[in-house]
Write a structure and sequence with these properties.
The structure is a homotrimer.
Chain A (H helix, E strand, L loop, with lengths): L11 E5 L7 H12 L5 E5 L7 H9 L9 E6 L10 E6 L2 E6 L5 H6 L2 E7 L16 H14 L8 E3 L14 E4 L3 E11 L5 E6 H8 L5 E7 L4 E3 L3 E2 L10 E5 L4 E6 L4 H4 L7 E8 L1
Parallel strand pairs in A: 1-2, 1-3, 3-5, 13-14
Antiparallel strand pairs in A: 4-5, 4-6, 6-7, 8-9, 9-10, 9-16, 10-15, 11-12, 11-16, 14-15
Helix pairs in contact in A: 1-4
Chain lengths: ~280, ~280, ~280
């Protein structure tokens, strides 16, 4: 009897834009299990909109605090697969993040304390599948490397350490504040819409508190989109605070401001999607 | 080497209306694995129609007999999240059922032998995440408590024992029989439509046998919906018993009467969904 | 403490047309875990088009090389459930394949070295659930038998060995080559469309190399569908080789020719689905 040493095992998560209609995700799990038998693999989501790096980056951020230390997070939203884009490994205080260097790491870099960044080189070749295709690096590169990392491989074995500044970052991922004597405007963007059509925005609760907390009198007045101006007098605590069909702002479970309609889809009603601009108008008095 | 003691491990299942587009389900699994590393987690479904407690209750019933003893079933169809609704734990002969007290347990209570019901109180707080949000109890309450239960926590540690009668139950979940000299009418409702558009109805095989078994001559004649009257002369054994495109009644894999069209969607053709009424007409002669 | 003997454990994969809306797949996993606790179960896909045996067969082929030796692959695309169709177990060099004998194994038989074929008989009854329904053999037959196989049951225990020639095979699964002095025509079919609308075709890279490699001068000229004739001068290496919206041919990750549109759906634009015919026109000079 050979026993399973659970101390030596980490966990792997997968986030892709592959969907679950095809066998792509299952094949990645097969490759992982061939190397790291019995390492648990958790699906974060495979429904990132195809090639939408902003959405992937924002979805990834939601999981930071909720997985055990040492988890290897694999993100494959990779329009440049087969081209010369790099693959990088970022080690933060609690986790590893393996991704193409195309901006997918932006939100993690903004939020987490980074210990080390490694750009994969040919040193990583022995840890990939023997044949690397031009179109499916999830199977041939990301899955086997994640499995080796979960089994204890050190990041330096995969390539060269690089500076955090050299990584690709997405523009306009943070809200922009402008103020005059009477009003504060926060120019925001939609990061993604969740299944219910709730819109997750690029304004963090901690940033709001740092800014709005200094204002003695700051009251939410409205949210403006290109087409609509919604009078909203407060940030609600929960959906039950408004009537069915009414809009509300609230701090979502990921500590970001969200715009929703009770029992309806805000994304659909207001015609907003990842990247859409909107403005939070606050009054000072 | 520390070995995995598989005798001490149970299994957890998840049923939600969260969908799999978002990271919500993955995050719940991350929380579980931080507490109960290597407890297997099985997805029952995350596609319950948003906030449809009747559908969730009926879907949950289908799994009762097919999981190992000691399984912890977690159900999060929870329109009242953030309000004062309770969370309850029901222990049946073979399993634990953790759910909001909103009717989601109705079908389990109707069918299973209940050993104990505990309403969660502040005693449960040490087993939740340190910060409990107003909108995502799946992550902050249900996941960590299920993980602790799977690791052996006793139900009493979570709150106060209450009577089964004090739980919220959904109305009209059982078929209603009316009869005269020549006909038997069974007023039924659709519980849910499955992926193929087959309609699962609230008439159990055991109830049919108990009632119809006593009739010396009882023949199925028709199914009436609000819009259609379908002549159906028998309860079929399998789809192959009727021609392509034809309707049939049969006892489904969950021991409930189902109405289907061979190679087509009955839900779509007859415009029926969870809650829709229909009547089974039988003839006595 | 009783330890988990990981040497004695294999892996199980599931491919069905059940979808993930319903609890069917979760129930299969419950049955498996009751017999083979802690055997990992991987979902290949549950989104095979309902009852589309050709699509299922082609999707199954993609996973052959990527799972550990000894994996038990379960395929349930089974329009004949409840009728007299057989269930068969095929043992190849690296894996077991459990499926209805309806053609679902065609691509595996075409590609893999078969060691043994067993047709399930009443010998298998002790390894099924006690009650076998007429409609859900995935739960009552496939899941428990796969679990017993993963725990080490030998195939002979399940039925009688039969010849590979006696298995049902789908027609027209291989491309047909015709040539004259100046042109080579390859009559192909679409096997399935992936999530992105890329069309996977029934022409293998190895067959192309064996045939086209002998031609001193063979140049791709066009792809003809019933409605369109697309001038395509080469087989590309990756999507980045063509402009956005343009069509391309390339060898997919499963070593089959694929037809795609960069950043668009070829399935939708060209109105092609599983089974649709199309022709690859090549020029000799």
């Amino acid at each position: 009897v050979s026993c399973l040493d659970i101390d030596g095992l980490d966990m792997i998560t997968l986030m892709t834009d592959f969907g679950t209609t095809d066998t792509y995700v299952g094949i990645m799990k097969g490759v992982i299990s061939g190397i790291a038998s019995h390492v648990p693999v958790v699906d974060l989501t495979h429904a990132v909109s195809p090639q939408n790096v902003l959405e992937g980056s924002a979805r990834w951020e939601t999981v930071c605090d909720y997985f055990p230390a040492g988890t290897v997070h694999v993100g494959v939203v990779d329009p440049g697969v087969g081209s010369k884009r790099s693959i990088v490994l970022v080690q933060t205080e609690r986790a590893f993040w393996l991704a193409p260097d195309n901006g997918l790491l932006t939100m993690i870099l903004n939020q987490e304390l980074v210990h080390r960044v490694v750009r994969l080189t040919e040193k990583a070749t022995p840890y990939c599948l023997p044949q690397v295709s031009a179109t499916f690096h999830g199977r041939d590169v990301f899955a086997p490397i994640a499995a080796h990392l979960a089994m204890g491989l050190t990041p330096e074995a995969l390539g060269d350490e690089i500076s955090i500044e050299s990584l690709v970052r997405l523009p306009e991922t943070e809200a922009v504040w402008t103020q005059n004597a009477h009003e504060m405007h926060v120019a925001m963007r939609v990061l993604f819409a969740d299944r219910f059509g709730n819109l997750i925005l690029n304004l963090r609760h901690e940033d709001w508190q740092a800014r709005a907390g200094k204002q003695t009198h700051l009251a939410v007045q409205a949210v403006s989109t290109e087409d609509d101006k919604l009078p909203l007098r407060e940030i609600s605590r929960t959906f039950a605070d408004v009537a069915v069909g009414e809009p509300l702002l609230y701090w979502g479970s990921g500590s970001r401001l969200e715009l929703a309609l009770r029992d309806d889809s805000a994304a659909h009603r207001f015609r907003l999607a990842a990247g859409s601009p909107l403005t939070l108008v606050c009054h000072r008095h």
